[in-house]
Write a structure and sequence with these properties.
By secondary structure, the protein is of the alpha/beta class. Helix content is 35%, strand content 26%. The strands form two sheets. It has an eight-stranded mixed sheet with strand order 8-9-10-7-11-12-13-14, with helices on one face. Strands 3-2-1-4-5-6 form a six-stranded parallel sheet, with helices on both faces. Helix 1 packs across helix 8.
């Protein structure tokens, strides 16, 4: 291995591929040696924008290279599990965007490959890394705050198959396996192992074949509860908004920003070396590789999230 961790970003032309490239350019221990996209034209465009020397099409063209130590997968959800396994079997470290899989069977199979690989295998559960949620986690760890209830809203206006850039998708997003995964994992991270979970969903979209509205209730081993509302029908401000109701305070988290219950902003600029959750996530990935350790948000650490999602899917069926 060279002085820097040599990283390939696959799906580099997508919204989150570019977010990773924006973060990686600030990490001294990382060097992006190749980007991959769905066409040579798109790959060349991203490479030119970010000053990357090599641009290729597809994952296979990345895995055959000898100048790649680690791969970040920002590809369609349905490819995550199989591509993660391919990267690990090729002997390279991997970070896959959330979700790890869109079925429990695929998630468990990917965990088995990761455990056998001896490589760093991490999932992009960004909420663990946002400075807002990190501050809350630090106060929980210090015994200064305990979650009693989390109230979470995940809202989008997405009645067509488009991505975060407003471009047409070749695959269909999912409230349960993608967007709920963020909160299910974060609730367990902040409040303890989930011991009860319930879900209901609204009508199935006639063309997309998915529920456009969903409600999930969770309870942790500590007794804390979580209510999660999700919608693709919300014609208004979109994003995910977290309200932590605790024994000593109330916090409202909006991505990397944090407020108290009176909507007064809390300074989180000293929580970590960056205010960008995805950059912090990528820093953890690179550091874990360099230090030969398990990263925060490893597949092993987040697998319980997918077990909960699998149980909820059975309920909804």
């Amino acid at each position: 291995m060279t002085d820097k961790i040599r990283v390939a970003v696959v799906g580099a032309n997508g919204a989150f591929g570019m977010k990773h490239l924006d973060g990686l350019k600030n990490i001294e221990d990382a060097e992006v040696t190749v980007v991959s996209a769905t066409s040579q034209e798109k790959a060349d465009g991203v490479a030119a924008k970010y000053g990357v020397a090599n641009a290729v099409v597809g994952l296979d063209a990345v895995l055959e290279r000898d100048d790649v130590d680690a791969v970040i997968l920002a590809t369609p959800t349905g490819l995550h599990a199989s591509q993660t396994q391919e990267v690990l079997k090729a002997g390279k470290h991997v970070q896959v965007e959330i979700p790890l899989a869109d079925s429990l069977a695929d998630a468990e199979a990917t965990l088995a490959v990761a455990e056998a690989s001896g490589r760093v295998a991490m999932v992009g559960h960004t909420r663990r890394f946002n400075p807002s949620h990190q501050l809350v986690h630090n106060r929980i760890a210090a015994g200064e705050f305990n979650v009693q209830q989390m109230d979470v809203q995940t809202y989008f206006f997405r009645r067509t198959n488009t991505n975060a850039k407003g471009e047409a998708r070749s695959w269909t997003d999912h409230l349960l396996w993608h967007h709920a995964a963020h909160t299910v994992d974060l609730f367990a991270y902040q409040a303890g192992k989930i011991v009860q979970a319930n879900a209901i969903q609204g009508p199935i979209h006639p063309e997309l074949g998915i529920a456009m509205d969903m409600s999930i209730q969770l309870k942790s081993e500590t007794g804390a509860i979580c209510t999660l509302s999700l919608s693709f029908n919300n014609d208004g401000p979109f994003g995910t908004f977290f309200r932590y109701i605790g024994d000593t305070a109330t916090y409202v988290a909006r991505y990397d920003d944090l407020f108290n219950g009176k909507e007064e902003q809390i300074d989180v600029s000293n929580v970590a070396v960056s205010m960008n959750g995805i950059e912090l996530q990528d820093r953890e990935f690179v550091s874990a590789i360099r230090e030969g350790r398990e990263p925060n948000s490893s597949i092993r650490q987040v697998i319980d999230c997918y077990r909960v999602l699998g149980a909820l899917e059975e309920q909804l069926a």
